[in-house]
Amino acid sequence: MLWKIICIFALFIFVFILILRGMKGPAYHLDRIEVPIAVLLKRGYNGGFLIIYDTNTNYFLQFSKYISKPNDYGIEFCFSNTTWSSKFFYELIELCKHERMCYYISKKEDNTKDSIEFLNIVLEEMSNLLTTFQERSC
Question: What pTM, to 2 d.p., does this model score?
Fold first, then answer.
């Protein structure tokens, strides 16, 4: 009887781990970033997001899908204002102002007392901003 209980418990743990791994979604390498962005654009819902983590640090980038109306949708780059990114966060805001780019600041509230600010930039405008930002940081 004890053997059956142990087997059922082990099976339960195995199924639970499979479900958790499935919830995280597939993992991609950074050199293939266009694949998950394309999936988000094609299949994602309004407000759907993609988070890219650096496994060695606490750094992350976030992309979000927006749908304004039928056939009017796109991807936004959402840059967080956290301890590691605050210097870049304010530099990116100034750069957006200087380049007259459309951007907005949003806050993500959670159950803790802290909230995270995000700088949201439409992805079409990001290529211009990245070129300018790289030129300034060199």
Answer: 0.62
